[in-house]
Each structure stands twice: as C-alpha cells, then as structure tokens.
Amino acid sequence: MTGQVCGVCESPLPSKAGSRGRAAVYCSAACRQRAYRSRRDPAPDVDALIAEVGRVANRLTPRPAEALLTDLTSLTADVGRLRRIAQLALRSEEENVTPEPVTETVDEVDFAERIEQHQRELRVHCYRMVGSYDDAEDLVQETFLRAWRGREGFEGRSSFRAWLYRIATNTCLDFLRRNKRVPRPYDPLPDVDQQGEPPQFMPWLQPFPDDSAEIAETRETMELVFLAAIQHLPPKQRAVVILNDVLGWKAAETADLLETSVASVTSALQRARPTLRERLPERRADWVRTAQVTEEEQAILRRYMAAATGNGDSRVMAELLREDVLVTMPPNPLWFSGRDVFLDFVAQSLDPASPTYFGEWKHLPTSANRLPAAAGYVRRPGTRVYRAQVLDVLRIEDGKVVEITAFEPHLFPAFGLPLTLT
After folding, report:
1. How far apart are CA 169 and CA 158, in angstroms?
2. pLDDT 10s digits, 8-22
3. Can you give the pTM of this predicted structure?
4. Which residues form a coiled coil (predicted)?
5. Cα 221 to Cα 144: distance, rounded to the nearest angstrom
6. Residue pLDDT, tens place only, 101-116
7. 129 touches 174 (CB < 8 A)
8. Is residue 228 domain-shared with residue 321, that is, in the same domain?
9. How many Å apart are CA 172 and CA 140, to the nearest integer?
10. Is residue 69 part of a domain?
C-alpha cells in the first residue's frame, strides 16, 4: 500500500508501483462518482441565494405564462433552500443555552450549508427506501433534524456524507417499523375480463420528478418497476441492496453504516437478489441504460398525448399499446390487464355522446422516474378551466407502451406543473 488515501472515503489506495498511467485518486468507481456529485453540487452561498431570489422576484410578470411558471419554480426552490438553512440555524440559537462560548463549536450556518449540500441525494435515498415522494420529503427533514440535534456526536471517523446516510437510513427503517407496508395482489374487478394474474397493489407508491441536475444514476435504479420490486424486500434487506448494489458502497461500508457484520450484509444480499430477479421483467438486463428519456420515447409520448385527448384516433392508441399492456392507478384499486380491456374502459369516457363522458382533455409532457410521462388536465362539461387530473407514467419496450402507471395530480407542483390550464 502507498501512504495515499482515497479523496472521498479516505481508504488506503492500492499501490501503482511498476504500472503506467496516473496514480489513483479514488479507491472505487463509486467514490469517483461521489466526488463528481460534490463538484456538481457545491455548498450553497447564502448571500448569492438571497441575491438570486431578489433578482427573480423583481422580474416576475403574469405573462407569458410559461416564463412565469419557470421563474416561480426557480424561486420556490431557492426560497426552500434558504428556509431549511435558516431553520437549522434557528434551532442552534434556541438550543445553545451555554452562558459562555464553548471551544470548537460547530458554526451553525456552515453546518446547515453542509447538510443542504446533500439534500437532493438524500431525498432520492429516502424515496427508494419507502417508495413515496411525500414520505421521502418528510424523512429528509427528519434526517436533518436528527443530524442537527446530534451534530456534536459527529467525530469524523467516517465522511460527513456517510454519517448523514446512516441517519437517513435509520430514519427510514424507523418509519417502516411504524408503518407496515406489505404489497398484496389487486382484487379482481367484477365483470371485467382481465388478462393474467392480478399485479401487486401498493397504494403508497408515488412518482419522483426528474431533474437533469438531481441525480447521476441511470434509470434502472429509479424506474417504477424497480421501486415496486424492492418494496417486496424486508426493510433491512432493502437498505443493504440500495447501499451496496445501487450506491456502490462496499460491504464493509454498508456493515458499518447499519452497525452489523460484513457476513450479515453478504447474507442479506444473497437473499434479496433472487427476490428482485423474480419481481423484475425478464428482459430488464437487456434494457438500454440511459439517464434521460430517449428521442423515440418522446415521439411515442407525443402520439400518446394526441390519442388521449378524446379527439384522437382510437386506432393510434391501439397501435401504441402492447397487447398485454398493464395499467394501474395507485392509490386507487383500479387496474387493467390487456389492451382491449383498457380501451373498452376509456372509450365511453372519451365519447361526448356517452352518458359517462368525462370531459375534454389537454396534456403536457414531462418525465418521472426517468420515464416519459403525460400530465393530463380535463375540462369538465359546463366548465371553462382545465384542471389537473392524472399523471400517466409510461414504460416502453420495443416501441410499444407495456405499462401505464396513473397517479393522482397532487404532486404536479413538485414537477413544476400548474394545477390548471386555460
């Protein structure tokens, strides 16, 4: 071994004696990716954030609507970051009752900024653990609160990031112990001739809004099919798989974070991986690993939105869907398996002459969990405004839509989407 250590986890680097090329800076590809993320997401400059909020606020105008929405989305994000930093600093003032200065105290603002630096990736981590965007938001805030209260206990034996991940993981495990979530098959629908066995019902499952700067992982670790599969794992196994197989931590690092042995981590992985293989599509190993929605998927999404307006050709929708397409609508217990079954269901609601006609539709394109998604708005008969109704997340294979997961619209603001259209 050399006397050098990894620039991220501070583990000893392997010797390069007798070999050509540059000396290693990181001990693994995972550490290299972590360093890349930290360079992309430096700790926020509070003064710069305040200046940016003022700049964006001063240019707000009601029209054009698209520019207004873009500015409001940016403004909301920056104000949220400032609020979290201020809240952590305020807690410090409330809790610091020592009459005389304590030597080597943690600078409150600096500590808050260090935590904020990891806010986005911790939200993703909590989301993977629990499968719910709303719960992940709450768990990240609980993580920050626990970190703040226990800041004096950080002794620097591990990286600050690893310390936060330990707190976040334990926060999620505590949540899952309090909230027993067990997937179960959907109930059969009366008078509906479904194809195949019922899928698994997970009413807590929610989409995650994509952001090109949010995470560097490929879609295979964010897709809904993967999120649904890991929900079948016991919480401890789920944590081990996420830390070891998704984040690329070494077994020893995972064991240290979970306060267990390397043998226990290895055993958990051996039990968890077969369960995942059973729950994931057979051809998943052959999927193209991309981080963003492809041009082909974007083209299919545009055709899907046009066909779903109610004015589109139903034959186009039939061409887009694979014969065995699966449609689920968490948290609602409604599900459809098979193209003809699904099209028969929606046909009446799209026909203005039908007594069950639902209204006129508009759609906006977006993406969720690294998949193409359509935000659907409906103008009910007798009204003038299109209101947010559904977020359809599409999984596409070989040019066909094989799965549609339709979510309720309350998360539209998290996607930067308006709740109404005119």
Report:
1. 15
2. 555 666 554 444 444
3. 0.74
4. none
5. 24
6. 333 344 667 777 888 8
7. no
8. no
9. 9
10. no
